[in-house]
Amino acid sequence: MSEWLCLGLVVIALGYGLAAGSLRYPPYASLRRALTYGLAIRRRLMRVSSPIGPVATLVIDISSEGDIAAKRQSLIAYIWSEGALPLDRLPTQVEHNVQPLRYRTGQNVAVHRFRIEMDFGVDSVVEHHVAASERETLVIYHEGHDAAREGGEGPVRHLLNAGYSVLVFSMPLMGVNSRPTVRLARHGSVQLLDHDFFWLLDAEHPGFSSLRFFVEPVVAGINYGLAKGYRECAMMGISGGAWTTTLVAALDSRIRGSYPVAGSLPFSLRGRGELADYENHVPPLYAIANYPELYVMGADTPTRTQIQVFNRYDPVGWSGDRGKCYEAQVQDVLARLGGGRFQVLVDDSHAGHRISRVALDRVLIDLCGGREGRSRDANGL
Q1: Which CATH number goes with the domain that contains 321?
Q2: What pTM did the predictor assign?
Q3: Does 128 lie in the same domain as 99?
Q4: Is there a single domain that holds both residue 63 and residue 41?
Q5: Which of 32, 164, 328, 332 is deepest in the core (most CB within 10 A)?
Q6: Do 75 and 44 belong together in one domain?
Q7: Order of strands, sheet of 255-261, starting from the edge strand that comes earlier in the sequence
Q8: Contact 145/173 with Cβ under 8 angstroms?
Q9: pLDDT digit string, tens, across residues 127-177
Q10: SS3 letters for 24-39?
Q11: Number of helical H runs and strand E runs in the chain
Q12: Is residue 101 domain-shared with residue 165, that is, in the same domain?
């Protein structure tokens, strides 16, 4: 009897499986998502395991503090025609105690909002989440290209629960930021819908670099935070926000700790399809300072740290452990210069394109390592 029962259950299961596949009954959608996700990870890992340039091809043309200062100034002059960081750039108006546009971070968290306006109608909407009993370090959290996929609310809440107030940024043209229409002499009216449209803008305006849209709001945010009385700033980003974190840390030494997650790799370590967006491969920028040199510049003094995190099974980009290929080389350069600390972590605790709890806990250990400030006024005003 039990054998017939088992056989009957098998027949029913097979029948339902066939029906689910052909008629898309539950749990067809869940199984399809799981299969697609697994195949994406497999394709990504196969891609990065294909032959890439040898580690010996990595170049770090930095042998002194003067080299760093020269590269930093050249980068600044390329991005800003004025030849200086906009250290006087502050928001003209701040809205206090508003409802957040991005993340719901709790009733005990005050949120203030301001907008950084830039050329051609491009802007950056910034939200300041103030911890109930906050430390003196302000953390800048920068979203990537797809905030919904990257799950930024969890990291922001985690930082707030640890007492760190957070400035939240989105990439230009992304999230709550504007997507303006511009008039181009050779193309007419064009709406800037994603970052690759910046190639057209740069081509029609010699001497102007759209890269300022990525970094100027963050520099203004640092100005804002220090003017508010925070003792120092740290920065964390995911994906495109991690790329922004890397560049801002190289440009502005007021960033004491930088924590890019799934953000960039040297060109010689990239596989097919990993050239990525406009900002990732602007030739004049990387002729001044290539990626390993930017990493050195982000931790160039004894008080500065950069910890890079890569998700080993990331289905979107920068998967595997390739960051380990240059870790020792960057550390050696920093040691010779008497610089700060640089580390590459490979996170195998999940299979997503996001910042995991493991990575967040490691960042908090570094943030708290000898840099805990006293509490400030709860509303941050």
Answers
A1: 3.40.50.1820
A2: 0.85
A3: yes
A4: no
A5: 164
A6: no
A7: 94-95, 110-117, 123-130, 166-169, 137-142, 232-238, 255-261, 305-311, 341-347
A8: no
A9: 999 999 899 999 999 998 888 778 889 999 999 999 999 999 999 999 999
A10: CCCCHHHHHHHHHHHH
A11: 12, 11
A12: yes
